[in-house]
């Protein structure tokens, strides 16, 4: 009698357990796919930030190299690049050095090109690092170096030439950063 009763119970089952378990498995699969997609997106974002940081570090290194070159006298104040007219079609007379009012735009210029005079548009420091230097002003009086301004009269040199240094850093995947710095050098 028991075998007939068990047989009748088995025939009444409709398989709802199988359907419920399949639905739960599908939900777990969707959660897993969503977690993997989110993780992959975050991995790509982190990688991009790392390449941007690398480009920024390269640009800062190029700025430092330019400032050091000006400080040590490697780039002479009376260099031909600052005194000879710049011709846009030919590039700078001296690599990376642009005279006053040259009209160069570091944001749109070709950093890898060469001018018609076989001089590069920018000074190459290392892989992913280059800079240009523009003369911005000549013989400006230092702020506070006059008795009229509340400072004391100085018997020494109180005039400077001001330069704008623009450095370009790039990373392995093509991220590019530009940094500008102003640098003053005594002109007397």
Number of DSSP helical runs? 3
Distance between the termini: 119 Å
Strand content: 15-25%
The helix content is: 25-40%
Let me know the average pLDDT.
80
Identify the quaternary structure here: single chain
- Assign the structural class, choosing from mainly alpha, mainly beta, alpha/beta, alpha+beta, or little secondary structure: alpha+beta
The whole-angstrom Rg is: 33 Å
Low confidence ranges: none
Helix-strand pattern: HHHEEEEE
Number of structural domains: 2
Number of strands: 5
| Biggest β-sheet strands, sense, barrel | 5 strands, mixed
Tell the overall outline.
Answer: rod-shaped
Characterise the protein shown here:
The chain has 188 residues and is an alpha+beta fold. The protein has two domains: 36 residues; 136 residues, no CATH class. The protein is built from three helices and five strands; from the N terminus they run H-H-H-E-E-E-E-E. Strands 1, 2, 3, 4 and 5 form a five-stranded mixed beta sheet that branches. Strand 2 and strand 3 form a beta hairpin. The chain is rod-shaped. The protein starts with a helix and ends with a strand. The relative contact order is 0.15.
């Amino acid at each position: 009698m028991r075998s007939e009763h068990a047989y009748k119970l088995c025939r009444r089952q409709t398989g709802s357990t199988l359907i419920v378990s399949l639905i739960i498995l599908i939900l777990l699969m969707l959660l897993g796919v969503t977690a993997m997609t989110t993780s992959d997106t975050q991995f790509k974002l982190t990688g991009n930030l790392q390449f941007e940081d690398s480009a920024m570090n390269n640009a800062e290194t190029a700025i430092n190299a330019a400032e050091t070159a000006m400080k040590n006298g490697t780039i002479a104040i009376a260099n031909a690049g600052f005194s000879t007219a710049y011709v846009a079609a030919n590039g700078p007379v001296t690599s990376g050095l642009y005279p006053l009012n040259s009209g160069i735009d570091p944001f749109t210029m070709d950093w890898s090109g060469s001018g018609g005079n076989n001089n590069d548009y920018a000074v190459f420091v290392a892989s992913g690092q280059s800079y240009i230097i523009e003369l911005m002003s000549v013989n400006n009086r230092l702020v506070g170096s006059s008795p009229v301004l509340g400072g004391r009269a100085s018997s020494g040199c109180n005039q400077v030439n001001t330069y704008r240094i623009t450095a370009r850093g790039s990373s392995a995947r093509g991220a590019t950063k530009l940094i500008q710095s102003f640098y003053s050098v005594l002109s007397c």
